[in-house]
Batch of 3 targets.
Target 1
Amino acid sequence: MGNRCFHYFEDLIFSSNLRADLPTIHDNNEDESLSANAIWDHFTNVMDMAETGIQAVSLLAYIFKLAISSQHGPVFVLLCLCKPVIRVFLWRSLWERAHVVEATDSSYIRLRALKEMGVEKYRQDIISGNIGEYILREHAQAREELGETSMGAPWQIYESTQSFGLRVMKDLAGDLTMLYYAWNAVFGPEKFSLASIAMLQHSESILRRTFSNGINQIGELRQSMNFMKRIYGITKIANVVEDGTLSYPADDQSETAGMSIDLRNVSFSYPGSTSKKALDDVTISIKSGQLVVLVGANGSGKSSLVKLLARLYDATSGQVLIDGQDIRHYRLIDLRGATASLTQDHHLYPLSLAENIGLGHPSQSLTENLVHDAARKGGADSFVSKLKEGFSTVLDSKDDQYSVHAIDISGGERQRVVASRTFMRFTSGRVKLVIADEGSSALDPQGEWELFKNLREERQGKTLVFVTHRFGHLTKYADLILCMKEGRLVETGSHEELMKNPEGEYFKLYDRQARAFTTDVE
Ligand SMILES: Nc1ncnc2c1ncn2[C@@H]1O[C@H](COP(=O)(O)OP(=O)(O)OP(=O)(O)O)[C@@H](O)[C@H]1O
């Protein structure tokens, strides 16, 4: 039963995660804490609390009966309950109110950041940079600066801020039964037998403990119930990027045409971003079948632009038109099927290399000759064939604690596998837009040259949009070069046209790169 519940929660989270798009993940990132383990813990908490509740009611009935039979009546029962009841009313929990927790203490923030550097991800940099001592020193200093400030959880800190008077009142309420015994001992000793005092005291202390436990758990109960509610909430979260209804490509569209793209006054800010816009009033027209190259300094908005084309995000304002229609009107499944993207952010899946390539076209992922052909075009075949298990090799998944493989490949080899996946995608015959965002950044010059050559050979019926910092391979073949600066489109044209303006951004970027090879001047 436990296992089945656990798997049910696990599958629910897994399918919701797979369904969510990027802005939705951003908006709901608090739900990273949502795991089947956590839910199972909360579920068992609720069960424990129900048990405590039943215990408390039974004990109360028992004490009531005892008190009546020993002639102390309901007054004594009321006194017993005073403390727990007062605690209920004075209970102060952060979970009772909507709250946002933000750390503002700079020493606290620094201490947390330094602690974070203890994880494996930073080991190599810390060892090779020889900065272990530095981190320890800074950590000690931040700890000292933090002084007595609590590092506790926000809800604990909140509970401890209750006024002194109220806390004293809560404590005094616990001594009322003792006062009752004392009063009776002095003014009516005949009412008590030693046996009845012992029994009442014993039952009272059990009742108090049970109530205290229950009350301590009230905050947890709320937290647990809210947590459990969230699991059902995540299945209902609608994606921010809404689906459209139009098929793509439209039936009347030529089978052989690539995607045409128009951006009209497009501005874009990332969800939650308070800094400047990633794209600011960009207007672009890309014709069907063109080879377009996007250039610009770091942070100029190139990747953001191609993310809008892949509809990973929607523009904040303005319009993106695909073949004359608003991109939001098309069915997402069609648009994504018509787009092949190759970026430096792509990862390999913890599956075999064959599947890693084959998943470019999932329904043909096991078709060996297609996979091998894609691997050849992506430049992965030569290194894969040298691996002992060839295309069946499963790479070591660093996140899998039970993984016993020790096989890993270089950054450039990974990029070749991802590029092969893109060539595999072409075999669907549905691709009309190819986006390559620095997808060759880790390749050696020969590999990069071959990749671009192979991509150009596949360009029939496709529009190609490349993002690059390296001029040469691509810019000389470009039908259109778009030059970005600080989120704005500052220049467009062919290489020859743009090179005619020595004051232009493109000329400066090109010139700086060319001079690196011809002079020693910085
Ligand atoms: N996920 C994100 N959340 C918030 N801001 C982002 C995010 N990604 C990028 N930005 C910001 O958006 C702006 C444009 O970034 P973008 O990645 O589009 O630039 P780029 O031209 O591709 O840069 P690079 O050449 O370094 O890859 C930058 O100011 C960047 O800091």
Note: The longest strand covers residues 261-268.
Target 2
Amino acid sequence: MSKTVVVALGGNAIQQADEEPTYINQLNNIKKSCKFLSLLVKQGYRLVITHGNGPQVGRLLQQNEEAQNVVPPFPLDVLNAQTQGFIGYMIEQSLLNELKQNHLTVSVVSMMTRVQVSSEDEDYLDPSKPVGTFYTEEEAKQLQVSNRWKMKKDANRGWRRVVPSPKPLRILGADTIRELSENGNIVIAGGGGGIPVICKSTDADVGIEAVIDKDRSGCKLAEEIEADVFMVLTDIDHVYVNYGKADEKALENLTVDELEKYIEEGHFSKGSMGPKVEAALSFAKTGGTSIICALDKAEEALQGQTGTIVNPVEKQVTVS
Ligand SMILES: Nc1ncnc2c1ncn2[C@@H]1O[C@H](COP(=O)(O)OP(=O)(O)O)[C@@H](O)[C@H]1O
Ligand SMILES: NC(=O)OP(=O)(O)O
């Protein structure tokens, strides 16, 4: 039977840092990304695609706030749903067009996905999820006062607004996602990390104003649908130790224990590679294979030829 791969598309697959965030620029990036995804479909992998929404949901939030005297604003959980809708549409249509050009007949389904979170998560008190545009330190300090935004430094890339990011506890509708995938559909699910909701057995489910990290929820999704591979596609060929230093070293094929040691040694930045390696580690611990690699090398990485591959301790073999 063909392997199920949960693919988490990084922000760069949708928007390049140095480009204007217009619809056309984002669509062109998605079209390029879909060319690489279609190669995986051609190889016979079953794809479940998830994607980020940090830049997009941050700008949508800003639009809602800035227009609030003219148009009533919507809460952040609804804005997450909006990003699932429009990014899902852009991926679905671009992928279908690419598959059609390659004479591949596979249906693509975008699924609005809610994700259960805790009402007690500590991130509500000290928000960590960067969204929207990058600012200089000076601009960030002004926005903190004028707009009452919480601002934090995002690795070495500038300052960004931060919003709460609770950990995903359960992907609601995971059974349906699995069924759709097993029936031969490409499924786009858990976009933007999913819509965060609090579920209590005695009360109605209720949405929460937060943005979940898509690498964390992608890993949870892979775990819950029992995927074979969890793959994080970004803009860098490997995960590195001593990244950016003279003695940096690309990580190729490693065990859970080795990766755990590198995480403890503090090699990975909180706002960029950190969540990816933690998600990769977490999935490998459940018995699957995790891969972090460049989007344009996805096919080779699945054949074990490139990328950072994290194997479960007992499974030191490459994926094919
Ligand atoms: N240890 C590391 N190894 C590799 N890349 C790293 C490391 N630490 C930080 N990075 C940075 O992480 C970036 C990828 O993270 P990010 O930009 O958040 O990805 P995406 O937007 O694709 O999800 C790389 O371009 C690289 O600059
Ligand atoms: N929700 C989320 O993690 O989005 P980004 O990957 O775009 O930050």
Note: The chain has a mean pLDDT of 94.
Target 3
Amino acid sequence: MGATDDTTARRDVLVIFGITGDLARVMTFRSLYRLERRGLLDCPIVGVAFEDWTMDRLADRARESIAATGEEIDESVFGRLMHRMSYVHGDFGKPETYDGVKQAMGGAEHPLFYLEVPPNLFATVVKGVAGGGLATNARFVIEKPFGHDRASATALAAELHSVVDESQLLRVDHYLGKVGLEEIPFLRFANTLLAPTWNRDHIDHVQISMTEAFGVDDRGHFYDPVGALRDVVVNHLLQVVVAVAMEAPEPGDRASIGRRRTELLRQVAPADPARYVRGQYRGYREVDGVADDSTTETFAALELRIDNPRWSGVPFFIRTGKKLRATETEVRIVYRDAPSLGFGLRGDHPPSNELVVRLGPTFGVRVALAAQRVDTARPELAELDVGFAAKPGEVPTPYEVLFEAALAGGGMRFASQGTIDAEWAVIQPLLDAPPEVQAYEPGTWGPAAAEALMGERGGWREPWIDG
Ligand SMILES: NC(=O)C1=CN([C@@H]2O[C@H](COP(=O)(O)OP(=O)(O)OC[C@H]3O[C@@H](n4cnc5c(N)ncnc54)[C@H](OP(=O)(O)O)[C@@H]3O)[C@@H](O)[C@H]2O)C=CC1
Ligand SMILES: O=C1O[C@H](COP(=O)(O)O)[C@@H](O)[C@H](O)[C@H]1O
């Protein structure tokens, strides 16, 4: 185990292993550019990869990558970003690569190492950094996947822990950087209107829906061995469950947020394969990189239960899939039936209240109240909507939030091994006994069985979609 600091010292260099790779192209350069524009970068950045690139080549890649995400490039911002960057090439398996990294780091004492590398190289890089004497006071950001099941996640953690301390590891779940997610606990606990009703006495069930209109496209090689459950349920959507269901952090102790997350996940009952629906869109098997006889799910719907006094008896329904009718992510709290009114209003059984937090494509909150208008025969739901951003792009992207948090030295935006283990424990029964995969037509809401999963609860609500 390597030497650690237990402070929250600001990082004084960012070293990115895998700067020439795909994640850097689609996410990293853009996030760094946006942080530079907001004046939030203040340290050198060292890119490391195998290819022998010049700085001009790196700058070209950075420029193309940023432009491809739709950002308009401000030359002075781009110039400042490139001015703080340097590049080291070498094999991650060779000690001399880390000599080059050490030199490029200058006298930095609190480095942040970001591993944008294939998962089978996580331990190689961490060991290389430690072997080069660079792990003292360092933090390591690592990317998913953290194993492909509970046992392999445990084995990966053990390998990493043989070199560095758990407190040095920052595991990325980009939903922990998503604007909207952290706002859910705030909304719950800061509003006297909501806090007393946020429990089994008032809430009938919770629907968490992350639907995508696009398919697997050019990611067949990555996606086919993974599937929807591992891609987004065991991580992102369980974090949405956590935000809805966790207890309040301890006053004045931000570190307790991480503990609260893990505590909640440990109270989620292991998922029941009988309450799990797997789907695959027609045409998926023709995607490049997908096996002709693939049974990988591109759609998953499941029910979870939480064994604690607040949530006992309240089902949490989750659905996600590719090539569905619309791209949206939301969590919908469906309240219990209102009592029969019995005081002479037309229509004596008002519809149930709903509270929706939309997490994508933009962030917003909707409260649906039962209302009786003079021109309608029965009470109906009237929707009060608050949009927090008119267009995508106006709020920080998840990766900006995560970089900012990691550079500030804090770990609250990242998942601990305790959290990862608890997540796999919930999902493992579904991996052990997966039901048959059912075909669905692109452009629908997935297999009919997903609707049946909801029983008598009125089915999946039409998501909150603009326009
Ligand atoms: N791509 C994405 O959208 C996402 C990726 N992730 C995760 O991020 C991580 C990186 O993924 P991605 O960027 O797609 O991977 P890529 O395969 O595109 O990139 C890998 C990078 O590692 C470098 N590399 C690989 N082997 C060596 C070696 N032996 N020595 C030196 N450099 C090496 C490559 O350098 P070179 O090119 O010079 O050979 C390249 O820069 C993975 O853990 C992935 O699961 C997570 C979310 C989304
Ligand atoms: O990690 C992943 O997440 C995206 C969805 O992220 P979002 O922020 O757009 O909701 C998903 O499309 C992808 O398959 C998965 O790997």
Note: Residues 13-171 form a domain with the Rossmann fold fold (CATH 3.40.50.720).
